[in-house]
Amino acid sequence: MTLPGYQTYAPPSPPKRSTLARASQVLGIAGLVGLVLCLAGMIPALAGLVLGAVSLVRRDADRRPAVVGVVCSALALIIGAGMLFWLLSKAAECGDESRYPDDSSRRGCVEREFPFAKAGTTP
Questions:
Q1: 30-62 pLDDT, tens per residue?
Q2: Among candidate residues 70, 89, 73, 83, the one with its CA nearest the CA of residue 37
Q3: How far apart are CA 22 and CA 16, in angstroms?
Q4: Residues 4, 7, 8, 14: what is their CA dihedral angle, to the nearest 10 degrees?
Q5: What is d(CA 91, CA 113) in angstroms, rounded to the nearest whole number?
Q6: Which residue has the higher pLDDT, 52 or 3?
Q7: Exposure string for 82-93, b = 16+ CB within 10 A, e = fewer
Q8: Is the whole model's pTM more than 0.85, yes or no?
Q9: How many angstroms separate the CA atoms of 48 and 103, rounded?
Q10: Measured between alpha carbons, how far is 32 from 16 in angstroms, rounded to an integer?
Q11: What percentage of the chain has pLDDT greater than the value 70?
């Protein structure tokens, strides 16, 4: 009950936040970090790109995280695609039978081009 001429106090409502925009931002950053783990970051980056695009199309109130998510996701996808193209071109070069006719020369090419992929010997 209020007296005439007085207004009741109503606390301001919290700002509206878009869950899609926040999820896009988190997935975009996780995609960039996940590129270090054998290109595993491309999967969350793709999901982040889709969620960010949906959030931007909906014109949600909180647009900044959606833009950050889309940019990070697109950057992760571009870097990941470039790395994947480079690795596959090196693998195709080592698999060229006209350049490396026998199995031992192809194995030597793989060991030279991919020193991190040492094959373990089992007794």
A1: 999 999 888 889 999 999 999 999 999 998 878
A2: 83
A3: 12
A4: 160
A5: 8
A6: 52
A7: eeeeeeeeeeee
A8: no
A9: 42
A10: 27
A11: 92
Place of tokens 């793989």: 110
Whole-number Å distance between alpha carbons of 72 and 66:
10
Q: Residue 12: its pLDDT value, please?
A: 81
82, 84, 103: which is closest to 94 by C-alpha? Answer: 103
Tell whether the model's pLDDT for residue 8 goes beyond 80: no
Token code pair at residue 107: 């194995």
Type of residue at 5: G
Paired tokens of 12: 């301001």
Q: For the chain, give the mean pLDDT.
A: 86
Q: Judge contact between 67 and 56, C-beta under 8 A.
A: yes
- DSSP assignment string, 47-113: HHHHHHHHHHHHT-S--HHHHHHHHHHHHHHHHHHHHHHHHHHHHHHHT-TTTS-SHHHHHHHHHHH
**What gap in Å lies between CA 58 and CA 114, rounded to an integer?**
45
